[in-house]
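Anyone up for a design puzzle?
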């Protein structure tokens, strides 16, 4: 297994997951308008993601030890992608909130399981550099998430975060 390539792929997965943490913030006004709710009420979408994202990280360590780190991170990323796609299909705030919660559940595996996998595969003398590379790529996603969300809001719709081709308006 090419460890450098794996770290790049895990870093890019981390980038997406960390960007997804906050990309919704600049989209809240657009989402609130789309669902005819107050923007403060649409703020539940942030909590819906962040709460499971934090809580489910505790579950993924034992799952990764039991079923394999690479398998768990791969399956969770596939389910994260599916849950993100479901967000684009939301017709109301309630179902979008549920889909965001699912997205947070599956995103939760990426950071802790990736770090454990790096710890397993990278020799001690190279581990700090590998972790720094992974974390640098991943947290670049968090650093740019507001810009990404704001750009999507300006050129597309909030559904542009979940779907490569935003659905046309009814």
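Challenge accepted. My sequence:
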């Amino acid at each position: 297994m090419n460890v450098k390539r794996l770290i790049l792929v895990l870093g890019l997965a981390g980038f997406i997951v960390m960007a997804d943490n906050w990309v919704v913030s600049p989209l809240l006004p657009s989402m609130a308008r789309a669902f005819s709710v107050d923007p403060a009420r649409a703020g539940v979408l942030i909590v819906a993601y962040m709460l499971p994202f934090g809580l489910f990280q505790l579950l993924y360590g034992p799952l990764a030890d039991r079923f394999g780190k690479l398998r768990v991170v791969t399956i969770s990323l596939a389910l994260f992608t599916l849950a993100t796609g479901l967000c684009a299909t939301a017709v109301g705030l309630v179902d979008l909130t549920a889909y965001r919660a699912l997205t947070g559940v599956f995103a939760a595996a990426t950071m802790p399981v990736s770090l454990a996998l790096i710890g397993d595969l990278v020799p001690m003398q190279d581990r700090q550099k590998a972790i720094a590379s992974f974390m640098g790529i991943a947290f670049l996603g968090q650093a740019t998430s507001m810009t990404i969300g704001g750009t999507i809001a300006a050129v597309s719709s909030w559904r542009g975060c979940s779907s490569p081709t935003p659905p046309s308006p009814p």
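A detail worth pointing out: The chain has one domain: 3-159.
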